[in-house]
Fold:
Amino acid sequence: MRGTLAELEAVVAVSVHGGFRAAARELDISSSALSQQIAVLEARIGVRLFNRTTRSVVLSSAGEQFVAEITPALAAIRKAVDLADEHRTEPSGTLRINTSVGAARMVLNPVLLEYKRRYPQMSVEIVTEGALVDINAQGFDAGIRIREAVPPDMVILPISRSVHPVIVGSPRYFERFGRPSVPADLMDHDCIRGRMASGSVYHWEFERHGETFTMNVPGHLTLDESDLMLRAAREGAGLAYLNSWQVGPDLASNTLIEVLEDWLSPYPGLCLYYPGRRHIPAKLRALVDLVREVAWD
Structure:
């Protein structure tokens, strides 16, 4: 009548993700192997935990009760493993980080790849997505986001002290349309607009002499990924609102030209964050020590 720990973890993962494919990715097994684990457990206990159709996988009423009972127990087991891990002198296992695509690009080499170089026995999994997730519930060790996006109940460690926004366009674009002198001039320009994970369009932010305001700039191209915006700006498709780290090489080579720099101010940068707890696993502690060492302005 007992389920193995792997089978119990499988049930919880499928219930969280609402399907086998995403849960299998989290558990690093095939979808068929995951389905088999759950089928074996259901056969052993004689209860159907999931109602399956060709389009969905949802918990049965018995499954809902089952998951509610085992989830705290699995959390207690994970905590016990973390406490035991405190006695390790070297990190081991898999470090799972949730972040955005742009943040991942900024920290990949100075932080994440350096972590791998220092601890080659470690496995590192980086999951990028625009929407903010509950890293604790989703099984991540930590997250990396801009400071203003970090939930208030997390331990926060700055990685980059500030992020400097820039508005850029290609020389070809400015030859055709001229340069804006003040933000109001943007209403006569073609701007590359950005759609956020929430679905709303990002309003460009400005600040000068203590005055802050936003603008819903016009444009015929809307993208949801900053690297695409950068590429479009290089091709003369319009003006883009990006960060200086991303466009540094383009500004140095005059592939892109910055405008309205006096109207833009830096904002708090990237942070590593993780749930507050008394004991920090060795793998996460090693990352925290590295971030403190390599954090940059």
User: Anything to note?
Assistant: The chain has nine helices and 16 strands. The longest helix spans residues 61-85. The CA atoms of residues 191 and 221 lie 7 Å apart. The first strand starts at residue 50 and ends at 52.
